[in-house]
Write a structure and sequence with these properties.
This protein is α/β, with parallel strands linked by helices. It has helices at 7-20, 29-32, 45-50, 64-76, 80-84, 86-114, 120-132, 153-171, 191-200, 208-215, 227-247, 263-277, 295-308, 323-332, 343-363, 377-390, 409-417, 431-447, 449-472; strands at 136-140, 180-183, 252-255, 284-289, 313-318, 368-373, 399-404, 422-427. 56% of the residues lie in helices and 9% in strands. The protein is globular. Bound molecules: flavin-adenine dinucleotide.
Length: 475
Amino acid sequence: MSSFLRPPLLHHFFMVRLLGTAASRTLTAERLGTASPGGHDLRDPALAAVLTFEDPQAFKVKSIWELLRALGVFRLCSFPVLVNNCGKLMSFARTVLGKRGFSMVLRPSVYAQFVAGETENEIAESMEKMSSLGLHPMLAVPIEEDLGESTGERRYDDNLATMLECVRMSHSNAWSRDPMMQLKITALVNPDLCVKLTSLLNEEQYDLDVLVRAMNGEHIIFPGLNEKENTHFLCSLHRLNQIGEASVNKVRVLVDAEYTYMNPALSLITMAMMKKFNKDGAWIWNTYQCYLKESRALLLDAIRLSVDHSFCFGVKLVRGAYMDKERKLALQKDKTDPIHQSWEHTNDSYNGCLDIMLNLISQEPARYMIIVATHNEESVRHAVTRMGELGIDKDGGSVCFGQLLGMCDHVSLTLAQQGFSVYKSVPYGSVDDTLPYLVRRAQENRTVLQGIRKERDLLRQELHRRIKERITGAR
Ligand SMILES: Cc1cc2nc3c(=O)[nH]c(=O)nc-3n(C[C@H](O)[C@H](O)[C@H](O)COP(=O)(O)OP(=O)(O)OC[C@H]3O[C@@H](n4cnc5c(N)ncnc54)[C@H](O)[C@@H]3O)c2cc1C
Protein backbone atom coordinates (compact mmCIF):
# COMPACT_ATOMS: atom_id res chain seq x y z
CA MET A 1 0.00 0.00 0.00
CA SER A 2 1.37 3.40 -0.91
CA SER A 3 1.48 5.78 1.98
CA PHE A 4 2.25 9.33 2.81
CA LEU A 5 4.99 8.54 5.27
CA ARG A 6 5.92 10.73 8.17
CA PRO A 7 8.44 13.38 7.11
CA PRO A 8 11.46 12.08 9.10
CA LEU A 9 10.80 8.47 8.07
CA LEU A 10 10.29 9.35 4.47
CA HIS A 11 13.45 11.37 4.40
CA HIS A 12 15.39 8.49 5.88
CA PHE A 13 13.82 6.11 3.40
CA PHE A 14 14.68 8.42 0.56
CA MET A 15 18.28 8.81 1.61
CA VAL A 16 18.62 5.03 1.83
CA ARG A 17 17.23 4.76 -1.70
CA LEU A 18 19.58 7.48 -2.82
CA LEU A 19 22.59 5.70 -1.41
CA GLY A 20 21.71 2.14 -2.16
CA THR A 21 19.62 1.08 -5.15
CA ALA A 22 19.84 1.01 -8.91
CA ALA A 23 16.24 0.66 -10.03
CA SER A 24 15.44 2.17 -13.40
CA ARG A 25 14.06 5.38 -11.90
CA THR A 26 16.49 5.57 -9.01
CA LEU A 27 17.52 9.13 -8.34
CA THR A 28 21.28 9.30 -8.08
CA ALA A 29 23.14 12.20 -6.53
CA GLU A 30 24.35 13.06 -10.02
CA ARG A 31 20.81 13.06 -11.45
CA LEU A 32 19.65 15.36 -8.70
CA GLY A 33 22.58 17.70 -9.12
CA THR A 34 23.77 17.12 -5.60
CA ALA A 35 27.12 16.29 -7.16
CA SER A 36 29.18 19.43 -7.47
CA PRO A 37 28.21 21.43 -10.57
CA GLY A 38 30.61 22.99 -13.03
CA GLY A 39 31.59 26.66 -13.26
CA HIS A 40 29.05 29.40 -12.66
CA ASP A 41 30.09 32.07 -15.14
CA LEU A 42 27.48 33.27 -17.58
CA ARG A 43 28.76 31.86 -20.84
CA ASP A 44 27.07 34.29 -23.18
CA PRO A 45 28.84 37.65 -22.56
CA ALA A 46 25.91 39.65 -23.96
CA LEU A 47 23.51 37.89 -21.60
CA ALA A 48 25.93 38.32 -18.71
CA ALA A 49 26.01 42.10 -19.29
CA VAL A 50 22.23 42.34 -19.43
CA LEU A 51 21.72 40.24 -16.32
CA THR A 52 23.43 42.77 -14.10
CA PHE A 53 19.91 44.27 -14.03
CA GLU A 54 21.35 47.77 -14.04
CA ASP A 55 19.57 49.27 -16.97
CA PRO A 56 16.96 51.85 -15.91
CA GLN A 57 15.56 51.52 -19.45
CA ALA A 58 13.62 48.55 -18.10
CA PHE A 59 11.32 51.22 -16.63
CA LYS A 60 10.77 53.12 -19.85
CA VAL A 61 7.32 51.53 -20.08
CA LYS A 62 6.22 53.20 -16.84
CA SER A 63 4.53 56.61 -16.72
CA ILE A 64 6.04 59.39 -14.62
CA TRP A 65 3.22 58.93 -12.10
CA GLU A 66 4.00 55.22 -11.84
CA LEU A 67 7.69 55.97 -11.25
CA LEU A 68 6.82 58.50 -8.54
CA ARG A 69 4.31 56.16 -6.94
CA ALA A 70 6.77 53.28 -6.79
CA LEU A 71 9.46 55.55 -5.31
CA GLY A 72 7.03 56.89 -2.72
CA VAL A 73 5.75 53.45 -1.69
CA PHE A 74 9.24 51.93 -1.43
CA ARG A 75 10.40 54.97 0.58
CA LEU A 76 7.52 54.45 3.03
CA CYS A 77 8.43 50.75 3.25
CA SER A 78 11.97 51.70 4.26
CA PHE A 79 10.85 53.14 7.64
CA PRO A 80 10.84 50.22 10.12
CA VAL A 81 8.45 52.01 12.47
CA LEU A 82 5.86 52.38 9.69
CA VAL A 83 6.31 48.83 8.45
CA ASN A 84 6.24 47.20 11.87
CA ASN A 85 3.03 49.00 12.74
CA CYS A 86 1.42 49.24 9.31
CA GLY A 87 -1.45 46.89 10.23
CA LYS A 88 -2.42 49.08 13.19
CA LEU A 89 -1.80 52.31 11.25
CA MET A 90 -4.04 51.18 8.40
CA SER A 91 -6.86 50.18 10.79
CA PHE A 92 -6.52 53.55 12.55
CA ALA A 93 -6.58 55.45 9.24
CA ARG A 94 -9.63 53.48 8.13
CA THR A 95 -11.48 54.39 11.34
CA VAL A 96 -10.57 58.09 11.08
CA LEU A 97 -11.09 58.49 7.32
CA GLY A 98 -14.01 56.10 6.97
CA LYS A 99 -14.18 53.33 4.35
CA ARG A 100 -14.51 55.73 1.39
CA GLY A 101 -11.86 58.23 2.51
CA PHE A 102 -9.41 55.43 3.32
CA SER A 103 -10.00 53.84 -0.07
CA MET A 104 -9.42 57.20 -1.80
CA VAL A 105 -5.99 57.47 -0.15
CA LEU A 106 -4.93 53.86 -0.52
CA ARG A 107 -6.23 53.11 -4.02
CA PRO A 108 -3.96 55.41 -6.04
CA SER A 109 -0.92 54.65 -3.87
CA VAL A 110 -0.05 51.38 -2.08
CA TYR A 111 -3.02 49.47 -3.54
CA ALA A 112 -2.23 50.49 -7.14
CA GLN A 113 1.41 49.50 -6.64
CA PHE A 114 0.72 45.93 -5.51
CA VAL A 115 -2.86 45.04 -6.58
CA ALA A 116 -4.28 44.65 -10.14
CA GLY A 117 -7.75 46.00 -9.34
CA GLU A 118 -11.15 44.94 -8.14
CA THR A 119 -13.43 44.47 -11.15
CA GLU A 120 -12.79 42.18 -14.11
CA ASN A 121 -12.33 45.25 -16.34
CA GLU A 122 -9.68 46.75 -14.04
CA ILE A 123 -7.89 43.42 -13.85
CA ALA A 124 -8.06 42.98 -17.64
CA GLU A 125 -6.53 46.43 -18.14
CA SER A 126 -3.56 45.57 -15.89
CA MET A 127 -3.17 42.15 -17.51
CA GLU A 128 -3.22 43.52 -21.06
CA LYS A 129 -0.46 45.96 -20.17
CA MET A 130 1.53 43.17 -18.55
CA SER A 131 1.01 40.89 -21.51
CA SER A 132 2.20 43.62 -23.92
CA LEU A 133 5.46 43.70 -21.92
CA GLY A 134 5.95 39.96 -22.41
CA LEU A 135 4.97 39.05 -18.82
CA HIS A 136 2.55 36.27 -17.91
CA PRO A 137 -0.12 36.62 -15.23
CA MET A 138 -0.34 34.47 -12.13
CA LEU A 139 -3.58 35.57 -10.50
CA ALA A 140 -3.82 35.28 -6.72
CA VAL A 141 -6.91 35.68 -4.58
CA PRO A 142 -5.47 37.21 -1.43
CA ILE A 143 -7.49 35.31 1.16
CA GLU A 144 -5.47 35.17 4.36
CA GLU A 145 -6.91 33.07 7.17
CA ASP A 146 -5.07 31.97 10.29
CA LEU A 147 -5.89 29.91 13.35
CA GLY A 148 -9.19 30.62 15.10
CA GLU A 149 -10.42 32.83 12.24
CA SER A 150 -12.61 30.24 10.56
CA THR A 151 -16.21 31.27 9.97
CA GLY A 152 -17.80 28.00 8.84
CA GLU A 153 -18.47 25.85 5.78
CA ARG A 154 -20.44 28.58 4.01
CA ARG A 155 -17.43 30.86 3.98
CA TYR A 156 -15.25 28.11 2.42
CA ASP A 157 -17.89 27.51 -0.25
CA ASP A 158 -17.87 31.25 -1.01
CA ASN A 159 -14.08 31.11 -1.24
CA LEU A 160 -14.41 28.15 -3.62
CA ALA A 161 -16.67 30.20 -5.89
CA THR A 162 -14.05 33.01 -5.86
CA MET A 163 -11.27 30.54 -6.69
CA LEU A 164 -13.26 28.97 -9.53
CA GLU A 165 -13.84 32.46 -10.87
CA CYS A 166 -10.07 32.96 -10.68
CA VAL A 167 -9.54 29.77 -12.72
CA ARG A 168 -12.03 31.02 -15.32
CA MET A 169 -10.50 34.50 -15.57
CA SER A 170 -7.00 33.02 -15.80
CA HIS A 171 -7.67 31.04 -18.97
CA SER A 172 -10.58 32.65 -20.77
CA ASN A 173 -9.20 36.06 -21.69
CA ALA A 174 -7.18 37.39 -24.61
CA TRP A 175 -4.32 38.18 -22.21
CA SER A 176 -4.12 34.60 -20.85
CA ARG A 177 -1.11 32.74 -22.23
CA ASP A 178 0.10 29.61 -20.39
CA PRO A 179 -1.67 30.94 -17.29
CA MET A 180 -0.85 30.12 -13.70
CA MET A 181 -2.73 30.95 -10.52
CA GLN A 182 -1.92 30.72 -6.82
CA LEU A 183 -4.05 28.75 -4.39
CA LYS A 184 -4.10 29.05 -0.62
CA ILE A 185 -5.42 25.77 0.73
CA THR A 186 -6.41 27.47 4.00
CA ALA A 187 -9.00 29.40 1.99
CA LEU A 188 -10.81 26.08 1.47
CA VAL A 189 -9.81 24.02 4.52
CA ASN A 190 -10.05 25.22 8.10
CA PRO A 191 -6.51 26.15 9.26
CA ASP A 192 -7.21 24.54 12.65
CA LEU A 193 -7.86 21.23 10.87
CA CYS A 194 -4.59 21.67 8.93
CA VAL A 195 -2.76 22.04 12.25
CA LYS A 196 -4.47 18.93 13.62
CA LEU A 197 -3.65 16.94 10.48
CA THR A 198 -0.05 18.11 10.75
CA SER A 199 0.26 16.76 14.28
CA LEU A 200 -1.51 13.52 13.24
CA LEU A 201 1.05 13.06 10.48
CA ASN A 202 3.62 12.49 13.22
CA GLU A 203 1.69 9.38 14.27
CA GLU A 204 -0.59 8.31 11.41
CA GLN A 205 0.28 7.44 7.86
CA TYR A 206 -2.12 8.88 5.30
CA ASP A 207 -2.40 7.07 2.02
CA LEU A 208 -2.42 9.36 -1.03
CA ASP A 209 -4.75 6.94 -2.85
CA VAL A 210 -7.27 7.17 -0.02
CA LEU A 211 -7.23 10.96 -0.25
CA VAL A 212 -7.79 10.70 -4.00
CA ARG A 213 -10.75 8.39 -3.38
CA ALA A 214 -12.17 10.93 -0.94
CA MET A 215 -11.72 13.64 -3.59
CA ASN A 216 -13.69 11.44 -5.95
CA GLY A 217 -16.61 11.42 -3.51
CA GLU A 218 -16.07 8.22 -1.52
CA HIS A 219 -17.07 8.49 2.15
CA ILE A 220 -13.78 7.86 3.96
CA ILE A 221 -13.32 7.85 7.73
CA PHE A 222 -9.93 9.37 8.45
CA PRO A 223 -8.25 8.05 11.60
CA GLY A 224 -7.68 10.63 14.33
CA LEU A 225 -10.46 13.01 13.22
CA ASN A 226 -13.78 13.38 15.02
CA GLU A 227 -17.02 13.26 13.02
CA LYS A 228 -17.25 17.03 12.52
CA GLU A 229 -13.62 17.29 11.44
CA ASN A 230 -14.01 14.29 9.13
CA THR A 231 -17.06 15.82 7.46
CA HIS A 232 -15.29 19.13 7.01
CA PHE A 233 -12.20 17.41 5.58
CA LEU A 234 -14.33 15.49 3.05
CA CYS A 235 -16.12 18.72 2.02
CA SER A 236 -12.73 20.44 1.69
CA LEU A 237 -11.34 17.66 -0.50
CA HIS A 238 -14.43 17.97 -2.75
CA ARG A 239 -13.78 21.70 -3.01
CA LEU A 240 -10.15 21.10 -3.97
CA ASN A 241 -11.24 18.45 -6.45
CA GLN A 242 -13.45 21.05 -8.16
CA ILE A 243 -10.48 23.39 -8.49
CA GLY A 244 -8.39 20.58 -9.98
CA GLU A 245 -11.11 19.58 -12.46
CA ALA A 246 -11.71 23.17 -13.55
CA SER A 247 -8.01 23.90 -14.08
CA VAL A 248 -6.45 20.72 -15.50
CA ASN A 249 -5.12 21.28 -19.05
CA LYS A 250 -5.96 24.99 -18.73
CA VAL A 251 -4.33 26.70 -15.76
CA ARG A 252 -1.39 25.61 -13.61
CA VAL A 253 -2.40 25.84 -9.96
CA LEU A 254 0.47 26.73 -7.62
CA VAL A 255 -0.36 25.90 -4.01
CA ASP A 256 1.13 28.36 -1.52
CA ALA A 257 3.28 27.29 1.41
CA GLU A 258 2.28 28.84 4.73
CA TYR A 259 3.40 28.20 8.35
CA THR A 260 5.41 25.18 9.52
CA TYR A 261 2.65 24.25 11.96
CA MET A 262 0.37 23.45 9.02
CA ASN A 263 2.62 22.95 5.97
CA PRO A 264 2.84 19.13 6.24
CA ALA A 265 -0.97 18.93 5.96
CA LEU A 266 -0.98 21.36 3.03
CA SER A 267 1.68 19.28 1.30
CA LEU A 268 -0.23 16.06 1.92
CA ILE A 269 -3.33 17.52 0.28
CA THR A 270 -1.31 19.01 -2.57
CA MET A 271 0.43 15.70 -3.25
CA ALA A 272 -2.97 13.97 -3.41
CA MET A 273 -4.10 16.59 -5.93
CA MET A 274 -0.89 16.02 -7.91
CA LYS A 275 -1.49 12.28 -7.86
CA LYS A 276 -4.96 12.80 -9.34
CA PHE A 277 -4.35 15.64 -11.78
CA ASN A 278 -0.65 15.47 -12.78
CA LYS A 279 -0.76 12.28 -14.83
CA ASP A 280 0.21 13.84 -18.17
CA GLY A 281 1.69 17.13 -17.05
CA ALA A 282 2.31 19.28 -13.99
CA TRP A 283 -0.97 21.15 -13.41
CA ILE A 284 -0.79 21.23 -9.62
CA TRP A 285 2.45 22.52 -8.07
CA ASN A 286 3.71 22.71 -4.50
CA THR A 287 5.78 25.46 -2.88
CA TYR A 288 9.07 24.90 -1.05
CA GLN A 289 10.36 27.54 1.37
CA CYS A 290 14.14 27.52 1.37
CA TYR A 291 14.47 29.52 4.60
CA LEU A 292 13.52 26.29 6.36
CA LYS A 293 16.39 24.14 7.56
CA GLU A 294 14.44 21.08 6.34
CA SER A 295 13.61 22.49 2.88
CA ARG A 296 16.07 20.34 0.98
CA ALA A 297 14.88 17.18 2.74
CA LEU A 298 11.25 18.08 2.05
CA LEU A 299 11.97 18.67 -1.62
CA LEU A 300 13.84 15.36 -1.94
CA ASP A 301 11.01 13.50 -0.18
CA ALA A 302 8.46 15.01 -2.53
CA ILE A 303 10.49 14.14 -5.62
CA ARG A 304 10.71 10.56 -4.41
CA LEU A 305 6.97 10.46 -3.80
CA SER A 306 6.29 11.76 -7.30
CA VAL A 307 8.48 8.99 -8.72
CA ASP A 308 6.87 6.28 -6.60
CA HIS A 309 3.36 7.43 -7.48
CA SER A 310 4.19 8.25 -11.13
CA PHE A 311 2.98 11.83 -11.27
CA CYS A 312 4.55 14.94 -12.77
CA PHE A 313 6.00 17.39 -10.30
CA GLY A 314 5.87 21.19 -10.34
CA VAL A 315 7.71 23.33 -7.82
CA LYS A 316 7.38 26.96 -6.80
CA LEU A 317 10.69 27.70 -5.13
CA VAL A 318 10.66 30.60 -2.66
CA ARG A 319 12.76 31.75 0.27
CA GLY A 320 9.74 32.11 2.56
CA ALA A 321 7.51 34.90 3.79
CA TYR A 322 6.78 34.16 7.45
CA MET A 323 10.25 34.37 9.00
CA ASP A 324 9.48 36.77 11.85
CA LYS A 325 6.40 34.88 13.03
CA GLU A 326 8.08 31.46 12.71
CA ARG A 327 10.99 32.63 14.85
CA LYS A 328 8.72 34.26 17.41
CA LEU A 329 6.65 31.07 17.71
CA ALA A 330 9.73 28.87 18.09
CA LEU A 331 10.97 31.16 20.85
CA GLN A 332 7.59 31.20 22.63
CA LYS A 333 7.28 27.40 22.51
CA ASP A 334 10.93 26.85 23.33
CA LYS A 335 11.41 24.92 20.09
CA THR A 336 14.35 24.89 17.69
CA ASP A 337 14.20 27.78 15.23
CA PRO A 338 13.04 26.17 11.93
CA ILE A 339 14.63 28.98 9.90
CA HIS A 340 18.23 28.97 8.68
CA GLN A 341 20.44 31.05 10.93
CA SER A 342 21.29 33.71 8.34
CA TRP A 343 20.24 35.11 5.01
CA GLU A 344 23.40 33.60 3.48
CA HIS A 345 22.39 30.12 4.67
CA THR A 346 18.95 30.65 3.15
CA ASN A 347 20.63 31.67 -0.12
CA ASP A 348 22.73 28.49 -0.18
CA SER A 349 19.63 26.45 0.54
CA TYR A 350 17.75 28.21 -2.28
CA ASN A 351 20.49 27.69 -4.84
CA GLY A 352 20.95 24.05 -3.74
CA CYS A 353 17.24 23.24 -4.21
CA LEU A 354 17.30 25.09 -7.53
CA ASP A 355 20.19 22.90 -8.73
CA ILE A 356 18.32 19.72 -7.77
CA MET A 357 15.29 20.74 -9.83
CA LEU A 358 17.27 22.06 -12.81
CA ASN A 359 19.23 18.81 -13.05
CA LEU A 360 16.02 16.78 -13.09
CA ILE A 361 14.45 19.12 -15.65
CA SER A 362 17.47 18.82 -17.96
CA GLN A 363 16.80 15.07 -18.06
CA GLU A 364 12.98 14.95 -18.00
CA PRO A 365 11.59 18.36 -18.97
CA ALA A 366 8.06 17.01 -19.47
CA ARG A 367 7.97 15.56 -15.98
CA TYR A 368 9.48 18.29 -13.81
CA MET A 369 8.79 22.01 -13.81
CA ILE A 370 9.89 24.92 -11.67
CA ILE A 371 9.12 28.58 -11.14
CA VAL A 372 12.11 30.40 -9.70
CA ALA A 373 9.99 32.67 -7.52
CA THR A 374 12.41 35.26 -6.23
CA HIS A 375 13.46 38.89 -6.52
CA ASN A 376 17.04 37.92 -5.75
CA GLU A 377 19.25 38.76 -8.72
CA GLU A 378 21.96 36.34 -7.67
CA SER A 379 19.53 33.41 -7.66
CA VAL A 380 18.12 34.49 -11.02
CA ARG A 381 21.64 34.64 -12.49
CA HIS A 382 22.42 31.28 -10.91
CA ALA A 383 19.33 29.75 -12.56
CA VAL A 384 20.12 31.30 -15.95
CA THR A 385 23.73 30.09 -15.77
CA ARG A 386 22.77 26.54 -14.86
CA MET A 387 20.09 26.49 -17.56
CA GLY A 388 22.79 27.41 -20.09
CA GLU A 389 25.18 24.78 -18.75
CA LEU A 390 22.52 22.07 -18.75
CA GLY A 391 21.10 23.04 -22.14
CA ILE A 392 17.62 23.88 -20.82
CA ASP A 393 15.54 25.97 -23.25
CA LYS A 394 14.78 29.41 -21.89
CA ASP A 395 11.30 29.34 -23.37
CA GLY A 396 10.78 25.57 -23.18
CA GLY A 397 8.19 25.97 -20.43
CA SER A 398 9.86 23.82 -17.77
CA VAL A 399 11.66 26.70 -16.08
CA CYS A 400 10.10 30.07 -15.52
CA PHE A 401 10.66 33.00 -13.21
CA GLY A 402 8.25 34.75 -10.87
CA GLN A 403 8.09 38.06 -9.05
CA LEU A 404 5.31 39.85 -7.24
CA LEU A 405 3.34 42.61 -8.95
CA GLY A 406 4.91 45.95 -8.07
CA MET A 407 8.22 44.48 -6.97
CA CYS A 408 11.53 44.25 -8.84
CA ASP A 409 10.13 45.10 -12.27
CA HIS A 410 13.74 45.68 -13.40
CA VAL A 411 14.34 41.93 -12.90
CA SER A 412 11.05 40.79 -14.50
CA LEU A 413 11.24 43.09 -17.51
CA THR A 414 14.91 42.35 -18.23
CA LEU A 415 14.29 38.59 -18.10
CA ALA A 416 11.22 38.89 -20.34
CA GLN A 417 13.18 41.03 -22.83
CA GLN A 418 15.77 38.23 -22.98
CA GLY A 419 13.08 35.68 -23.90
CA PHE A 420 12.66 33.95 -20.54
CA SER A 421 9.23 33.01 -19.34
CA VAL A 422 8.30 35.42 -16.53
CA TYR A 423 5.20 35.51 -14.34
CA LYS A 424 3.99 38.28 -12.09
CA SER A 425 1.98 37.19 -9.07
CA VAL A 426 -1.10 39.39 -9.35
CA PRO A 427 -3.46 39.78 -6.40
CA TYR A 428 -6.85 41.36 -6.96
CA GLY A 429 -9.84 42.35 -4.87
CA SER A 430 -11.29 45.28 -2.95
CA VAL A 431 -9.15 47.51 -0.72
CA ASP A 432 -10.65 45.84 2.35
CA ASP A 433 -10.09 42.30 1.04
CA THR A 434 -6.48 42.99 0.12
CA LEU A 435 -5.48 44.85 3.32
CA PRO A 436 -3.78 41.89 5.08
CA TYR A 437 -1.95 41.13 1.84
CA LEU A 438 -0.77 44.74 1.56
CA VAL A 439 0.50 44.66 5.13
CA ARG A 440 2.52 41.55 4.33
CA ARG A 441 3.92 43.15 1.16
CA ALA A 442 5.07 46.16 3.13
CA GLN A 443 6.82 43.87 5.60
CA GLU A 444 8.31 41.83 2.78
CA ASN A 445 9.89 44.93 1.30
CA ARG A 446 11.85 45.25 4.52
CA THR A 447 13.38 41.79 4.13
CA VAL A 448 13.82 41.79 0.35
CA LEU A 449 17.27 43.07 0.85
CA GLN A 450 19.19 44.28 -2.17
CA GLY A 451 16.50 44.16 -4.83
CA ILE A 452 14.35 47.00 -3.55
CA ARG A 453 17.31 49.30 -2.84
CA LYS A 454 18.51 48.82 -6.39
CA GLU A 455 15.02 49.23 -7.83
CA ARG A 456 14.72 52.55 -6.05
CA ASP A 457 18.05 53.71 -7.53
CA LEU A 458 16.99 52.67 -11.02
CA LEU A 459 13.58 54.32 -10.64
CA ARG A 460 15.32 57.54 -9.57
CA GLN A 461 17.70 57.39 -12.56
CA GLU A 462 14.81 56.87 -14.97
CA LEU A 463 12.87 59.73 -13.36
CA HIS A 464 15.87 62.08 -13.68
CA ARG A 465 16.29 61.05 -17.31
CA ARG A 466 12.62 61.79 -18.04
CA ILE A 467 12.71 65.18 -16.30
CA LYS A 468 15.90 66.11 -18.18
CA GLU A 469 14.29 64.97 -21.40
CA ARG A 470 11.28 67.19 -20.76
CA ILE A 471 13.39 70.20 -19.87
CA THR A 472 15.92 69.93 -22.68
CA GLY A 473 13.64 68.22 -25.20
CA ALA A 474 16.53 65.78 -25.84
CA ARG A 475 16.02 61.99 -26.08
C1 LIG B 1 5.69 34.45 -7.25
C2 LIG B 1 5.92 34.36 -5.77
C3 LIG B 1 5.19 33.48 -5.00
C4 LIG B 1 5.42 33.37 -3.62
N1 LIG B 1 4.74 32.43 -2.89
C5 LIG B 1 5.07 32.24 -1.59
C6 LIG B 1 4.50 31.20 -0.82
O1 LIG B 1 3.68 30.43 -1.30
N2 LIG B 1 4.88 31.06 0.47
C7 LIG B 1 5.82 31.88 1.06
O2 LIG B 1 6.17 31.67 2.23
N3 LIG B 1 6.36 32.88 0.35
C8 LIG B 1 6.02 33.09 -0.94
N4 LIG B 1 6.60 34.10 -1.64
C9 LIG B 1 7.43 35.12 -0.94
C10 LIG B 1 8.86 34.65 -0.79
O3 LIG B 1 8.90 33.55 0.09
C11 LIG B 1 9.77 35.72 -0.20
O4 LIG B 1 9.25 36.23 0.98
C12 LIG B 1 10.02 36.88 -1.09
O5 LIG B 1 10.02 36.53 -2.42
C13 LIG B 1 11.38 37.50 -0.70
O6 LIG B 1 12.43 36.61 -1.00
P1 LIG B 1 13.38 36.85 -2.26
O7 LIG B 1 14.07 35.59 -2.61
O8 LIG B 1 12.56 37.45 -3.34
O9 LIG B 1 14.36 38.02 -1.76
P2 LIG B 1 15.72 38.10 -0.92
O10 LIG B 1 15.93 39.52 -0.60
O11 LIG B 1 16.82 37.40 -1.60
O12 LIG B 1 15.44 37.31 0.41
C14 LIG B 1 14.62 37.78 1.43
C15 LIG B 1 14.19 36.51 2.11
O13 LIG B 1 15.33 35.84 2.66
C16 LIG B 1 14.98 35.23 3.88
N5 LIG B 1 15.77 35.86 4.94
C17 LIG B 1 15.94 37.19 5.15
N6 LIG B 1 16.71 37.42 6.24
C18 LIG B 1 17.03 36.19 6.72
C19 LIG B 1 17.77 35.75 7.86
N7 LIG B 1 18.33 36.62 8.69
N8 LIG B 1 17.90 34.43 8.07
C20 LIG B 1 17.32 33.52 7.23
N9 LIG B 1 16.61 33.88 6.14
C21 LIG B 1 16.44 35.19 5.89
C22 LIG B 1 13.48 35.47 4.08
O14 LIG B 1 12.80 34.37 3.52
C23 LIG B 1 13.22 36.72 3.27
O15 LIG B 1 11.88 36.81 2.80
C24 LIG B 1 6.40 34.21 -3.01
C25 LIG B 1 7.15 35.09 -3.79
C26 LIG B 1 6.94 35.16 -5.15
C27 LIG B 1 7.77 36.10 -5.95
